[in-house]
Amino acid sequence: MALEALTMVYPPLVVFAAALLVLVLPRIAGFAVGSASLLAVIALAWLTPEGAHLTGSFLGFEATLFLVDDFTRMLGIVMGFLGAFAVVYAYSSEATRRMTAFALAYVASAVGAAFAGDWLVLVFMAEIMAMTSTLLVWDYGGDAVRAGFRYAIAHGIGGSLLLFAVVAHYAEVGSFAYTADGITTGLPLLLAVLGLGINCAFIGLHTWLPDTYPKPHFAASVFLGVYTTKTSAYILYRALPDDGNLYVAYMGGLMAIYGATFALLQHDMRALLSYHIQAQLGYMVAGVGIGSTLAVAGAMGHLFNNVLFKSLLFMAVGVIIYRTGENDLYELGGLWREMPLTAVGFGLGAFSITAIPGFNGYVSKGMVLDAADPHYYGAPEYEVLYWLLMIGAVGTLLSFIKLGYYAFFHGESDLEVADARPGQTVAMLAVGGACLALGLWWQGFVDLLPGIEGQAFQYTGGEGHLHPYSPGHLRDSVVLATVAAVAFALVRKPLSKLGHVPDVEVIVNPAMYHLGRGSMRAITETFAAVDAVAVGFVRRCYWIGNNPTVAVDRVARKVPDRLVDTRDRRVANGGRPSRLFLRAGIGTTVLFVTVALTIVLWLLV
Amino acid sequence: MSSVDLVPVLLIATPILAATLPIALGLRFDRVGWSIAALTTTGLFAATAFLATVVYGDGATVTHALGDFPQEYGIELVADELSTLIALLVTGVAAGVLAYTRTGGPRGNTFYTGYLLLTGGLLGLTMTGDVFNLFVFLEITGLGTYAMISSGDGPESAVAALKYLILGTVGASMYLLGVGFLFMATGTLNMAELATALPDVEGQGETLVRVAFAFVFVGFSIKVAQWPLHTWQPDAYQHAPDGVTPLIAALVSTVSAYAFGRVAFTVFGADFLATTPYASEVVVTVGSISVLAGSTLAVIQRKVKRMLAYSSVSQFGLIVAAYGLVTETGLVGAVVHLVGHGLTKAGLFAAVAVVSVSTGARTVDEYAGLAKRRPVAAMAMTVLLVSLVGIPPSVGFVGKWYIALGAVEAELWPVAAVIFLSTMLTLAYAARLLEKMYFTPAAPTERPVPPGAAATDGGSPVETDDPDRVTVGMIGLVVAAAVLVVALGFAGGTFYDLLEPFVEEVFN
User: Fold this and answer.
1) Which chain A residues are closer than 8 Å to B276 by Cβ?
2) Which of A192, A252, A316, A581 fits a 20 to 30 Å CA distance from B450?
3) Total domain count, chain A
């Protein structure tokens, strides 16, 4: 009975209620409630029996608000776990109550999307998530406002594309339920992949990511870096559950390399981590794209782990920013003496993300790689993908050696700063401990993943078993680490010059900047250009409509300067001078009426 | 004839008769106008609610034939599922806006005469079952609106009213010409009779019917403010007194759009729209262009009222485009959006009025930091803007959702793309305002125009800039609109059920 009652509790509502309470309660009580609400989400995800669901009517359609299966349970657990400690972290990081309320509302919508039982609820929650995350970015003010606008526009477009995909899917299938075939192939799937591609930071559509995440409060970055992109990777699986898609898989491989490369070139620590979100998403996208049981399990496992270690890294970097006030990596150095606890936290995260044996990233990344590698369980067409992912792994190692080296080692610190505050330490060590625990006790972890029973899974050749610590895997790992270490030794000089010799920097940095932001520029500028053209066009049309004689006169004389001194014109019908030169007079409108009537009559009769 | 049958007549006759009272009693008493208007509109709302229980509860259409003439010659008033819904909106908003005008002005007994006349005209437009009578009520509504707009202070109000007077009359005349052609083709003016007679018209008559549709459509395009025939509307909304704009913005174009839907679907019929070459295409095109042009123009405005006015151009474009889809879902979407947009705009313009009364802010820039200074008004405005964008849960989302679904059903992908774009553009201008209110610190604003100019109609001028002038009623109106907009967001299925009988009848 008690378990049945659990399915009636809708987890996102619990979190959302906590978000409201944070606003009114005293600071410590409010944050405690926020953290507790997320622990409750874990409990609900864990205890609610599989297959339980909560249905309701939404817009006249049957909707499944809340569904528990292998996927949603796993997402719920990790989202709740991380969220609970991120709130603790935010408490110690002097986050305002308003910001935390926004963050909790954002988490609530992400949890809602994770637990959604059909496409309708999913799209609805994804839209709310876009909105709440924008508010979270805006809350910081300053530079974050403009970045937030670009973020909102990107996610508005992504969300609408997904909405149209779902509507088109509904028109084909007549139901919103998740199916084993995913979104209908053809236009609906194309729209869905495009829309999700924006949220999953496909190359070319990713520009909002490194643009937005470094801008807000550092505790907000911890939340932002986790929920939106990971939820989108999960939705991508729901859209492509069956056989995957070769193009999507290769997009994932390219993302891994692209993200790691641009991460290596960043100065801003959070920008570096943001590009790594893209790189790690590459592994998930690749897993979903390959589509075999092992690949999907690996993708979901990497999603799970990534939530932990990526936020841990954002936390550690956040502490550095909090104590030193510095975002630029090259201004730091030798910090391990000043803040050893933070260094430990960072180390746990960095070892996980770079897939060092013993940490959780090693297990899940290994699963994706095995699923791609034709020598293990991959199909031959994924040979290239496997190498792309391997190169991505080297890039990841390189950039984290760089980040760790320049932040914590490299010379003496010229700053005397305190270490992390207690709450920050608790959050970092708890999440870091989880990373280590899941890497060591990998049997329990893989059992949680969908499609894996114990350590066994099905593939086309029969039943396979996972052996992450087999000699072959360990050898690969050692080779990877050696290659990265050698490569770092080679590029360290140029890289350090990149940071310390100003004249080289003057040339190289702008070049990298333009290269890295090239795609972003292309998109934003195109949008701005289209916008300018549209507005200009409308203005000009109105101007011509308002001043037909002058317009004709100008065209006749071919005067090149446009739109001159129209602002000084007085309105002919006796009002005060108008700044709005758009007004059409009565006579003009009657002319429009005549023209419109003529056209309609001509068409109809 | 039961007592219910009398309700439609009373709904129209009462406000028009009551309109004489403020002037008559005004000879003896000073400030009697508001009380009379409040009594009348509240009574009207109650009567409409009663009518609604009968229409929706018993599923019966209430018809009243004036003077008991046979249907072919007589004048009919019809309350069916569609017109009752609109009548609820009209009476509800008319009663609600009075909460603002009590202290917010404009004052004076003559103003309330115009107010009641306008309400009567709108209800007549809603209820009439006769195409010629529809013209008469269109004119009554127009007269009421001209009077309302010109009651603002400053010469711009007079100019705006004149502009609407001329263009509105042109529009109504075109409609009348269209009605003339219909009469030539069929020999009747009753809507129900026309609906049965029109499909049988052949040969020369068919041309007449098409010409009639062209005139009716262009006439209504002016009244509904479709680009590029909208030019009266931004001036009218901007220069009308603050207390009047909510009423006009929520009702006048809405009821005209309803009337167009009524004529297009009840009189001409879905078949006519679907089979006549270019008919639905023309409607869809005009609507879609209005959506894009209207929202683009809204984005570049600096004055908040004007921005919202252009937003109306775009939202009505959506409704007209939805008519042109000629699907059941599209039609339901159009009606839901009609009601939802009316409520939203009433609330938004009332909020704008509250803000300008209490802080003097009128441009987007002046709204900076409003959330700190006027938290309740800013919050309500946010909710309303969210509904305008169409973010769930709000009635704006329900309407857009059904329209989008209709577009997909009809496989008109360009329309689906237009809906998508309009959401983006609406988001652009709504976000601009939201960002100013919540995330930009307040800068000391300069007073715009010093108050105290004389009103054109001789009524007492309204002075601004005094926080105490914001009454509980004003805030209550805004908050009530916001709450309703969200509450109705959950009523998507209910709307569909309520309108289903009408829609099924139209499409079968």
Assistant:
1) 604
2) A581
3) 2
